[in-house]
Each structure stands twice: as C-alpha cells, then as structure tokens.
Amino acid sequence: MVSENVPRPWTRHSPARRHVEMPTPTAIPASMRPAHVGRLLLALGLLVGAAAGAGLVVGFEPSRLPPALLDIAAYKLTFVAALGLIVAGALFLRRARRAARDDGVGAGGRGGAR
Asked: Quick one: DSSP state of residue 15?
C-alpha cells in the first residue's frame, strides 16, 4: 500500500520554463534581419582576411619599430578578427535559416506541442 504523502515520480513537475517570444520577421527592419546581417558579416570577414593575406604576400609593413614583432602581432590580430567575423556571419545565417524553417512549424518551433 502506497502512502499518500510520498511523492511519486510521475507527479513531480519540472521547473517552469519561461517562453520568450521572438519578434516576427515583419517586425524586424529588413536591414537588420539575421540573414542580411549574416551575409554582411561573412562578406566583411572574407574582405578583411583577403586584405590581410594580400598585405602579407606583398610585404606590407603596418609599422616600422620593431617590424618583425609588430607585423606578426598585427597580422595575427587581423586574421583573428577576420575569423571572428566569418564565424559571426555563419551563426547569423544559421539562425536565419532555422527561423525561416520554424516559421511554419507552430508555436515557438515546437510544432504546437508543449
């Protein structure tokens, strides 16, 4: 016989999850939509990376004192910045594609089930 005061596993509730509504695509200005921002960041990252690579190949020196140390540091920072822009752009595009895919699914991308 089971006592009424003993909690049963099937009667426990998980903590309440707060549902956050995302703005609809029409509420976001066209210039700030994730797909647009993602493409812009990808293009900017590729442009910065290409410029850094071209500068390295032609022997461009960003500074004069001491050139070896500061050139290496400047190029490393430039390549890291380019990589960061490329990653940010890819993440924005991924989010945009996921949002576009989930638009027709239902409430919050869960297919209407909670």
From this structure: P
